[in-house]
Input
Amino acid sequence: MKDQLLGFLQRVWNGFLAFSPGQKAVSIVALLAVTIGGYVFTQWAAKPTYSPLFTNLSATDASAIIDKLNTNKVPYQLAAGGTEIDVPQANLYAQRLAISAAGLPSSGSSGYSLLDKEGVTTSDFKQQVDYQRAVEGELSMTIKSIQGVNAAAVHLAIPQQDVFNDGTVKTTASVLLTTAPGTTLNSGQVQSVVNLVANSVPGLATADVTVSDSTGKVLSAGDGTDSSTSADTQTAATKDYNSRLSSSLQTMLDQLVGAGHSSVIANAQLNFDKTDSSSKTYVYTPGTPPTSESTTNEAYTGTGNAGGGILGAGGTSAAQQSAVSVAGTSASSATANGAYSKTSDTKDNAVGTVTTNTVAAPGAVSKLNVAVVLDSSVPNVNKTAITNLITSATGLNPARGDQLAIEAMPFDTSAAKQAAQASATADAAAKAAAKKAQFNSMLRTGGLVVLVLAVIIGTLIAGRRRRKAAERAALEEPDEMDDLIHQLQYETPQEVIVEPSPSLTQASAGQEELANQRRVLVSLAENQPQDVARVMRSWLSSNN
Output
């Protein structure tokens, strides 16, 4: 096995020595590239894959976990500014269980586990504080599970429940969110946080929850409004509305007068006031039976004597004044003879009520101003048609103070011409640079192709030369063998002298093995001439 391996290596080395200098250089470079690539690949394949063990750690917990990992002799990496610890994937779950068994991270155990330490001697105040801390911790861990939220801090203000609390002091909450880099929570996620907190605390309304992020931006105010009513959001919403409206109008005008011959600006005022109105209407359905009904009948007959009694200020008696008063209020009649009659009918009909609550969403247009400038060089521009189109497209309402101004004046096109010229020059330069780059690329590719062809042609020529040399050596070899046989047959062994042929000295390294065999044959002829002669005679007889 060893001799075969040495023989293989010898043949490889002899083949390498037969290469031309260019082939040797290419072979060496290829061997180095394969060696370096194999080393880099093995290093990369041997490197373990790290996964997060714990995230959002405090400095105290991170230090304790690192000490635990060093004790267990587990490699680790720090990420996210030291708040995240990564370990190899193969050790992830085992180390997570081991570290959790050691009570780490400790700062995260602020949920309902705090209530496990309560005893029978714990005061009411401490029980209330521990309960509040437990609810805050549970809410923080729940909010952190929302995608994009790295950390959450919840603070509750729960009034003390006693007999002196008349309910005027309400429970409030504030939430501070730390989002992942490059992540912005949308309004739906913010409202989800508000509802989550409000529905987890008894007596807490959504209007009493304030949500802010780590940059200090208020995402949801505690007055019942959300982030859409903030000043920055109002400005951004107004700017976006004006931009979209101006772009739509500009596209329409470009179709009418051509691109670059008009300019439009829209300036809208949006009303972000949130109004809530309610109205009540009483409804009666004809034919509905009354809910209650009462009837009163009263009759009186007297002696006909209307006199007597104390005279009043008008010269009438008290009885007459009473009769007049009763007659005026009850639609009754009285005469001087004392006759009296009264009838009363009361019905309570079933009347329904309809209460309507209307909440106006903020962001409605309260006023809109549009200004349009047309290029006077454009012929046959119908300003009336353009006015009607813009009025219809934007919903202009003069009753609320909307205005539309359209003016035609010559445009200054010098900047546009300079820009077009600069664009044409830049395009020409870019095309020239692209052509030059393409020519250089073709030149490099052609040179590489020529080099490869030269190497291939050189290899073919060298191989052809080696084959020709081998053929010449093979053609010359029978003559030398004939001389050797002739010497073995007709000359004495002492007179046999074999001199190396010039063709053998000029043969390539691939013919060295044949020369070795020839030397062995000569040595046998010198040492055992009789045996060699016998073999040669047998060869000659077999050929004849």
User: Anything to note?
Assistant: The radius of gyration is 55 Å. The CA atoms of residues 385 and 532 lie 123 Å apart.
